[in-house]
Task: structure prediction
Amino acid sequence: MTDSDDWRVTISLTGQEQAAAPASLPEAEEDIRRQLGRGVAVGAGDTQIFLYAGTEADARNAERTALDALAQHDLQATSVLHRWHPIEEEWETPDVAMPQTEAERQAERQHLEDAESAESQASGMARWQVRVELHSHHQAVALARKLENEGQPVVRRWKFLVVGASNEDQATELAGQIRREAPPDAAVHAEQSGVGWPFIPS
Result:
C-alpha cells in the first residue's frame, strides 16, 4: 500500500440507483475524476465509487466533491471513510488509533499473530502457507518426503509444494528452514493462504 492510498472513501449509491448501475454513473465518474485531478485516485464498481487519498483532509475534500458531482447528476449516495491499518492489513474507521511507537507496533503485530494462530487452531486450517516452486518433479518428491519425515504436512502438486502455517511469524520461520533444505534454485514464498491447507498445531 503506497502513501497515496492511506485513506479511502467508499461512496455507495442509494435508493433506486442501488439495484443496478444507472446510465448516468459513468458520466458522473468522469466529472469526479476531472474535478479531483491526479491527487486522488478514483475507482468504480457497478454502484460504488472509491476515492484514495494520502491524508484525511484530502479524503474528506474528495468525498464532498464526489457527492456534489453525483447530486448534479441526480444520483443519491452515502459515503464512509476508512484508513488503512498497515499492521492489521485492514481498512479501519478513523477512530481506531494507530500505533505510534515501536512498542505499540510490536504489540499490534503480536495481537495479529495471536488472532491468526487462534483462528488456525480452531479451524485446523492454515491462515498462512509456504509455497515452494521447484524445477523438476523429482526435486518436489524428494523435498516433500524430507519435510514429511520432519513432521511437516506437505501438499504436493507436480513441481510445487505447499506447507501450512498458523501465522505470519511461523510461515516466515518455516520458509527460512525450507530454503536451507531445498535446492539452491528453488523459489520459496511465505504468504497468506488462499486455500485452507491443513497444518500441525505447535
Observations:
- The longest helix spans residues 102-123.
